[in-house]
Amino acid sequence: MKKFDKDKLTDVDIYLGEPNEQVRESLRAMMRGEGLRRTRTFARIDDMINALKEAPPDLLVAADDIDPKLFDVIRDIRHFKLGRNPFIMITLMVRPENDEAVKKAILAGADDVMIKPVSPGKMLERVAHMTMNRLPFIVTTDYVGPERRRAGAPDRPSKIKLLEVVNTLKAKVEGNRMSQADLGRAVENCMNEVMAARLDSHGLKLGWVCNLILKAYEDKRIDKELEDKILVLVSVLEDASRTSRAIGEPELANICTQMARQVEEMAESYENPTDAQVGTIRKLTKAFEMAKSSKAAAQPAVPPGPQAATA
What we know:
Oligomer: single chain
Radius of gyration: 22 Å
Helix content: 40-55%
Largest sheet: 5 strands, parallel
Strand order of the largest sheet: 2-1-3-4-5
Distance between the termini: 39 Å
Strand content: 5-15%
Number of strands: 7
Low-confidence stretches: 297-311
Shape: elongated
Mean pLDDT: 87
């Protein structure tokens, strides 16, 4: 597999998080030997977090044993709660004995996952391949990251939009270095698409959960699981409200909040709902889509920075 051209790696910024000093220094020496001289290493995740707040790297490489909260940190990056660029390339290295690590890494939104011990040469080949052939991103109610499922898979709704996101690592190796202002605009444009896709995902999830709730009432399955599904609706609507507010749609945000309160009232008496409350569930998805469509002509404006996505 072809590696990066050394001559084009001078300006690439890499953050490497690895608690084992011997492994950390070996990886850094290898990277610098390959021309990646702007490689910063971290033994503690808090130091890595502080660096992410100061400036975004083009590539983040981190080991799962650096800290148990690593996967939450990766998720915060993708949801624009940490750092200035939620679309940095991310490679995670996980221990083979950590059975859940690969799944957690994927769900957090990592671009690639490698099983330790990681061969330095192999890692660079994988990074080069993933960078130049980056998967498009998808957005759901709780996920932002690469779309790994095959197109046409039965578990992936066809309406989920595929997003091409900013890739500063690829830009640099192709000789297209971005200024901070250019990066800010690119991230803002991508985040506008992410937020719009997130609202679309809210509509899909509302429809799915509403159908489950109505089916449960039809089948007389009035149990705790039904209550939980109703509360899921509340959560989705509240998140839709926050998303709408973030893209400058306060009216849509207020509508979502009002619908959330109505559903919340139903949850308190889910065992004996009124006809009107069941009717609300039946009309909820259409009401949400109509409210969203009425605002579709407005141009969203996501302010740069982590505060843009506070879901």
